[in-house]
Write a structure and sequence with these properties.
TIM Barrel, 6-stranded mixed β-sheet, binds zinc ion, Urease, subunit C, domain 1, 2 domains, 14 strands, 15 helices, single chain, 33% helix, alpha/beta
Length: 377
């Protein structure tokens, strides 16, 4: 049975009709049939009508980087003292004990704040996480995280068919994942025809390890028996990723805090997307990415909350407010919304389903908070 939903305003994110006042969306079986003015669509409509009232709606949000496996660690990790302190502390946490009630709470928070899709990294439980997203009604990609020295014989991604999402592979990082494993991970995602994700240029130790400079973090890893035969490439992380063949249109580079203008140009030329996680970077204390230069280069730019081990919440609107308040340059409402809708839809290859409010897309949307809208008045 068709449904009509009315709102004061719809920010559709389509080029033709980016904002509609007194808007109506007609949907059937979870798919949008038409979008327009209420007064134009209502007279010919018969079916159930929901009036959302005096609110603006936007496409459902896409969180381009999270680790819901860590959602039970909210408020329990050390903040602001750099990556090494943070990761040492994280490894002392009960990372294998993920309670169902923490996942249920995360699900409620994501739904309450308009997130409809999650690009999630799974280091320990990829099948459980895919099952969780499917059961909870989220669109998703669960990236099985490739880390260490071994390429699994049967591939990284567990078998499994889902209605709302799929699995793919992510590389953990250039310094924790062997080059052969990174190449195999990228190759598997390409064979599957799905996106690849990689934490890239997140912190100074990563830069030092790649450059072959002394790093307390490398000492820590080698003390744990990792990277014993590591040969530094003596390159910037981004150049190393490019030379390994990891950067192309299907790659999402996460963080990119430590990137030079030359690195930004390398990423732009590759066609890769970038996911910025500004509050996570501040929480851990790794610095701030050159947001303005990345956006000015024309790179497809997304936002992610990262995990609750390095952020206060999973609310993408809060991520956007944080970003907008500190952004030094012109950033329109459309540009900001794009980083949570059309841009990640493109990066994740789901632009036929999500990212805009138009016929043929999934009938899902978010309600735009007033404090967010006020930033653009
Ligand atoms: Zn991450």
């Amino acid at each position: 049975m068709p449904e009509l939903t009315r709102a004061r305003r719809a920010l559709t994110m389509t080029p033709e009709q980016s904002a509609i006042d007194d808007a109506a969306i007609i949907s059937d079986n979870g798919v949008i049939i038409s979008v327009g003015r209420y007064r134009d669509l209502a007279p010919q409509f018969s079916g159930s009508v929901t009036d959302l009232g005096d609110v603006s709606i936007a496409p459902g949000l896409i969180n381009a980087h999270s680790h819901l496996e860590l959602c039970h660690l909210r408020g329990s990790t050390i903040a602001g003292q750099g990556f090494m302190v943070w990761v040492e502390d994280l490894l002392r946490q009960p990372i294998f004990d993920l309670p169902e009630e923490a996942l249920a709470k995360a699900s409620r928070e994501l739904k309450r704040t308009g997130t409809v899709m999650v690009a999630d990294i799974a280091t320990r439980f990829p099948e459980r996480m895919a099952g969780f997203f499917e059961k909870s009604g989220f669109f998703f990609i669960v990236f099985t995280e490739a880390i260490g020295e071994t390429v699994p014989e049967d591939g990284f991604v567990p078998a499994g068919e889902y209605a709302l999402g799929c699995g793919s592979v992510a590389g953990h990082s250039l310094y924790t994942t062997h080059v052969d494993v990174l190449r195999a991970a990228k190759a598997e995602s390409a064979t599957l025809g799905r996106p690849f994700s990689l934490h890239l240029a997140e912190h100074d130790d990563e830069v030092a390890i790649m450059a072959g400079e002394p790093s307390g973090f490398l000492d820590l890893l080698q003390g744990r028996g990792r990277l014993l035969d590591f040969v530094p490439p003596r390159k910037a992380p981004t150049q190393q990723a490019a030379d390994l063949g990891l950067l192309d249109e299907r790659t999402l580079c996460v963080h990119c805090v430590k990137v030079s203008d030359a690195d930004i140009e390398t990423i732009r030329q590759s066609g890769a997307s970038i996911c910025l996680c500004p509050r996570s970077n501040e929480f851990i204390g790794v610095g701030r990415a050159p947001w303005e230069a990345i956006r000015d280069a024309g790179i497809n730019c997304c936002l992610g909350t990262d995990s609750l081990a390095s952020n206060h919440d999973l609310n993408l609107w809060n991520e956007a407010v944080y970003f907008r308040e500190r952004y030094q340059g012109v950033l329109s409402l459309h540009d900001m919304l794009a980083m949570m809708t059309v841009n990640p839809a493109h990066a994740m290859g789901v632009e036929e389903t999500l990212g805009t409010l138009e016929p043929g897309r999934a009938a899902v949307w978010s309600i735009v908070p007033d404090d967010f809208l006020q930033l653009f008045e």
